[in-house]
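Archive record
______________

***
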Amino acid sequence: MISLKKHIDSLGDSEVILSFSGKLTIDVINHSLLLVEKRLLERKVKTRFVKKIYNVLVEGLQNIFHHGAKDEDDSIPALFSVSYDSESFKITLCNSIKKEIVEKLKVKLDAVNQMDKNEIVEEYRKVLDNGIVSEKGGSGLGFLDMKRKTKNNIDYNFFKDERHINFLVNLTIETNNE
């Protein structure tokens, strides 16, 4: 997993709203969501951006919680942050995954990234109408919803550290296009 310091340093002049590195739990998720919303409202961020950021962060944290690889102590290590600069908000999510799902994720993400706005909406409705739920409780809407709400492709990368395959996602919500 990348270090929190290295990640924050990579943000440059962006203002960090929230950053976390550690064991992801329901309490961490709930507290982080409340804190992000509070800090955005304190900065008088427009409500539509607060909602988008909140919803995208919920989706990303749920993905990590339900699909992230667990450590030896049965915990889910994760790193995430919300930051902004004059042009956009950035949400970064990172967690360990099992090696056998890397190719499946690449295929899914590449397919979502190739879709235009109308195709995203059509696929989203199709998944909702079919009501298919995986054994882990997901319906496959996560990445579609992230692209739909951010109006940007999902920037992702996989990298190996000494023990794990790490899955890094960067999402951008532009403020000057709305």
